[in-house]
Amino acid sequence: MKDRPLTITFASLGLAEPIARALSDEKYEIPTPIQAQAIPHAIVGRDVIGIAQTGTGKTAAFALPILHRLATTDGKPWPKAPRVVVLCPTRELGAQIVDSFHAYARYLRLKTMLAIGGVPIGKQKRELASGTDVLVATPGRLLDLSNERAVSFEHVEVLVLDEADRMLDMGFIRDIRKIVAMIPAKRQTLFFSATMPSEIAKLARDMLRDPVTVAVTPTATTVELIEQRAIRAERQQKPALLASLLRDEAVTRALVFTRTKHGADRVVRGLDNEGIAAQAIHGNKNQGARERTMAAFRSGEIRVLVATDIAARGIDVDDVTHVVNFDLPNVAETYVHRIGRTARAGASGIAISLVSGEEMPLLRDIEKLTRRQVPLSGQASAPQRHADNEPRGERREGNRQRQGRGRGGNERHDGGQPRGDQRHAQGHRNDRDGGKPQQNQPGKAQHRGNRTGKPQGNRHHGGPSRPHDGGNIGDIGFMSRPGR
Ligand code: AMP
Fold first, then answer.
1. 218 Cβ below 6 A of ligand 1
2. CA 430–ligand 1 middle distance (angstroms)
3. Residue 420 covered by a domain
4. 206 found inside a domain
5. pTM of the predicted protein model
6. Cα–Cα distance between 63 and 99 in angstroms, integer?
7. pLDDT of 346-367, one tens digit each?
């Protein structure tokens, strides 16, 4: 990755030998910036606030100093009483954290276990009863286990909060505060979050002691590695355009983002009609279905995974060549999280956003945040009927989850109402092309093209794409690029 301080190596961090050996097995040579900054403080017992998102190597930034502590101090875990508790927002992220601990601790005799909701609690109780060094858990399930006296916090030495901002988004703050209140005050706390909204900053102030704050700038480091594009396309044009983009053989593994669970299912059905195998991953699917889908995506059995933002948090699949934003997210930072899926561990990738007229202000927000212009191609001529790409009454997944959990719906830092809707209500238009009538009819051409089932990329037409000049959206062959 870029921006690595040259002087810091894993050897200079002084990690215990079995851990260093495991890192060498993993082919980790140089610490990533968040690791280089966080590990020296964490390893001497300081509390750390790490501002970093998935893809920066943040898991090892907390896992390695924790394993060093466990490897260099005596102590077998007591029944039900873990020495380390890691709280995280989703099952997928939890599973990946456990995988990371297993990988880095492969030469240590330590036990790491996962306690997540959506699966029977009995096995987790039995595992806890036999003693675990590291417990990785989602807050709701951990509270359930605590209420059933299946876990005791009295021997916890280190507490980690991973993706704290996402836990806030998902309405877990009260659960977290209850758990923290049960953990001994004399502990080390490692607190990771991609962003620092005020409620998260307050939580950190309340639970950390004299913390060191370290930060990496994901918008600069991650975004630089990714080739970003946007295509103007109205809601009704998007399914056919998506299918034609995904037919390009340069797309070996694509992650498609939608705002809603129903939207994800609709996209999968649309692709299926076009003969493109895809599966969706979102909060309505049970754990078994999610795991099967992820395994099929990892193995390459399916090339296209359609995901909502919440379900996609923590998905760690290498070699995602393309991220496609079927809808733009209402929060610009979410865009950075999304496209970061294609730039894992320093790899590069391509991110394509399908942008309707109503979504143009969101594209401007993204450009402001990332301080980069996203080249825009094509245009749309079809009339717009509704502000959002979601049918009325359909809500974003996060909102529904919060409602379902009955924990109050006001624990969001981005406000209850999606920004796109607010802008629409205010009649706010900020289109780059001023919303002027368009000269040609690309949408029609696109639909015609797709009925024939032929790919629409320009390599099939032989002409270059014409960013910003109103070219046909079917004439954009940029799923591949030289050198990939
Ligand atoms: P994370 O941000 O923890 O989800 O890590 C993102 C990816 O980077 C994972 O696939 C890690 O295995 C990988 N990774 C983490 N640290 C390093 C490193 N120092 N060198 C190479 N790869 C790394």
1. no
2. 39
3. no
4. yes
5. 0.56
6. 11
7. 556 899 999 999 999 999 988 8
